[in-house]
Amino acid sequence: MLRLSARFHQTEFNAHDLPCGGRWESNMALSATIYRCALQVADLDRPYYGDHTLTIACHPSETAERMMVRLLAFALHADDKLTFTRGLSRDDEPDLWQHGLSGEIDLWIEIGQPDEKRLRKACARAREVMVYSHQPRAAQVWWQNQGAKLAQLDNLGVKRLAAETGERLKSFTQRNMTLQCTIQDGEIWLSDQHNTLNFRLDVLQ
Fold first, then answer.
1. N or C: which end of the chain has fewer CB within 10 A?
2. pTM of the predicted protein model
3. Residue 107 in domain
C-alpha cells in the first residue's frame, strides 16, 4: 500500500486574489462561485507526496471543466510554492505559477490555447512553461497553426486532455471536494469517494 508523508501544506486565497477563468473583475468576490478542495498528491515520478487545502474561484464565464483542469494542473505540479493567479485577463500572469527564492519564475502554467506571442513572452520570463489544453477540436486547430512555431521554444511543454477525460473531470466537481491524485510512469489516477478516473495526457511537445 502506498504510504503518504504527513507533510501538510495549506494554500488559501482571499476571493479577491483568486483565478477566475478568462476575466478578472473587481466584483468577482460577489459573482464567482467558490470551491474548496482537500487534495492529496502522490507523484511517484518526481517523487512528491503532500496534502494541499485549496480554495478556487470559478467565474461565471469559466466552465466547470476548465476549473477542474486548473486543479489537475496543480496536482501534476504540486509544490509548496505553486500558486493560482488572477487568470488570463492579466497579460503578465498565467493560470498558475511558481517562484523561486529570489523571485524568479520557475514554472508558468497556462490552460487552453494561448497564442504564440504570449507563450514566447512566458518562455522568456520563466524557466519552464507548461500548457494544458482541454478542448480537443480547438486544440487540434491551434496546434496545426502554432505547433511548428512553438517547437522552437525549448522550455515549453504542451499536453492535451482527451475529450472523454475532460468530460469525466467534470463529474468530480463539488463545492467541497476531497480528491486523491496518484501519478506513476505518466499515468494519472484521480479519485474521490464516488468516482475514479485513470488516464494519460497526450504529449504534443
1. N
2. 0.84
3. yes
